[in-house]
Amino acid sequence: MKERTILHYDMDAFYASVEIRDNPSLKGKPMVVGGTVITTASYEARKFGVRSAMSVMEARKLCPNLVVVPVSMGKYLEISSKIKNLVLKLTDKVEFIASDEGYVDITEIIKKYPSKEYFALRFQRGIYENTGLTCSVGIGYNKLSAKIASDVKKPAGYHIFNDSKEFVKFIGEKNIKIIPGVGKKFQEILAEKNILTVGDVHNFSVYELISYFGKSRGEFLYCSSKGEDNRQVDYKRRVHSVGNESTFKYPLESEIEIKRELENIFHKTHERLVGKGLLCKTLTLKVRFENRRTITRSKTLENFVDSREILENTLENINESVDYSMKVKLLGISLGALTQKSVRQLSFSERELFKKKNSVDLLKEKIKKIEKND
Ligand code: TTP
Ligand code: MG
Question: Where in the chain are the domains?
Fold first, then answer.
């Protein structure tokens, strides 16, 4: 199999960090985000043993000064799609596995950078400058090693596993629960066979593991303990345009007919644009005449839009420039130069605010050092 380089990122105390960013008086205090149940805890609260999924009542017993901030899901989702769009600017080979984490296949793009370390720092800095939030980054040679790497220096750190030798050495002495997918129940079953660390798995053959735990779990354990994981980063190709066409068995003759068909096609296309949560910047009209001659007419708008009115007017303008002296065999509309609706450009003041923060300066310094040594 071809050698790969995979990055995994995971935002630090995601919901809590957003709340602290938006209300700096919370900084340094043990706080959680939640109602009756905690979604996440700040790192200060974690020192008291406060964790996700714990009840607030239970947490207050551990930490009497705990500050509880209500959940603002809309806000976290908006920031989540902003982060996703930032990552997608690097490459479309991204698989988002939660609102605050994802895998990126950087096998190709890493070649343009001086080192993996440099890339990790640039990645973190990019996220921080645009959102004011820190993330942890792991770079490995497959998904498993990348995912575990991102947890090594949490929060705000990064770790790199260059090859399976390095990785297997690292996980060997660790508790078996370090392997994602090994939950509490499985851990108990494994303990019955004296498998407490990842290294303990090596005492068994793959056949023994399968006979104890079943085919899929047995194979999974065997491969994971040797640092093997062939899963691909499951990315979806980005949509570059949305469009619809209609071919007419009986070519259209009158302008009224043409207009009605165009309205139908526009309606379908516009619904798809809105349904996918996209904005567009260009509209293209395609017309094929009875003699098979095909023309396209495009207009690029000043801004990204999904407004039905603006797009309908644009279509009307373009359509007026078409000479319909011949019968029409096909009509098509496509909306291009797409972007996700949730992307919001940062205002200048917000950008400046984040630039003032210390950790960005630290990252910049580290990057400079690497550049000097290169
Ligand atoms: P996580 O990435 O698991 O946790 P986290 O980002 O808060 O902290 P860490 O620094 O350890 O990565 O989850 C991301 C968000 O998902 C988290 O901020 C809140 C939400 N969440 C819940 O709502 N319930 C839960 O049980 C968990 C684990 C997370
Ligand atoms: Mg997280």
Answer: 6-160, 164-225, 241-343
Sign, Cα dihedral of 234, 238, 242, 245:
negative
**CATH number for the domain whose boundaries are 164-225:** 1.10.150.20
Q: Does ligand 1 have an atom closer than 6 angstroms to the CB of 9?
A: no
Atom of ligand 1 nearest to the CA of 16: 18
**Domain 6-160 fold:** Alpha-Beta Plaits (3.30.70)
φ/ψ region of 156 (left if φ > 0, alpha if ψ in -120 to 50, else beta) reads: left
For the record, the structure tokens of 84 come out as 């996703």
Half-sphere exposure of residue 118: CA atoms within 13 angstroms, side-chain side: 15
Q: Is the CB of 12 under 6 A from ligand 1?
A: yes
Q: Which ligand is nearest to the CA of 20?
A: 1
| 11 CA closest ligand 1 atom index | 6
Q: State which amino acid sits at residue 36.
A: T
Is the CB–ligand 1 distance for residue 83 below 6 Å? Answer: no
Shortest-distance Cα residue to atom 24 of ligand 1: 39
Q: Does residue 82's CB lie within 6 angstroms of at least one atom of ligand 1?
A: no
- Is the domain spanning 241-343 CATH 3.30.1490.100? The answer is yes
pLDDT in tens, 314-354: 999 999 999 999 999 999 999 998 887 764 333 334 444 44
Closest atom of ligand 1 to 38 CA is 24
Residue positions annotated with a catalytic role: 101
Judge if the beta carbon of residue 105 lies within 6 A of ligand 1.
no
Backbone φ, ψ for residue 31 (5° rounding): -140, 155
pLDDT tens-digit profile of 234-287? 887 667 899 999 999 999 999 999 999 999 999 999 999 998 888 999 999 999
**What's the pLDDT at 239?**
73
CA angle in degrees (0–180, nearest 5) for 13-15-32 = 80
How does pLDDT run across 50-105, given as a tens digit for each residue? 999 999 999 999 999 999 999 999 999 999 999 999 999 999 899 999 999 999 99
Of all protein residues, the one whose alpha carbon is nearest to atom 5 of ligand 1 is 13
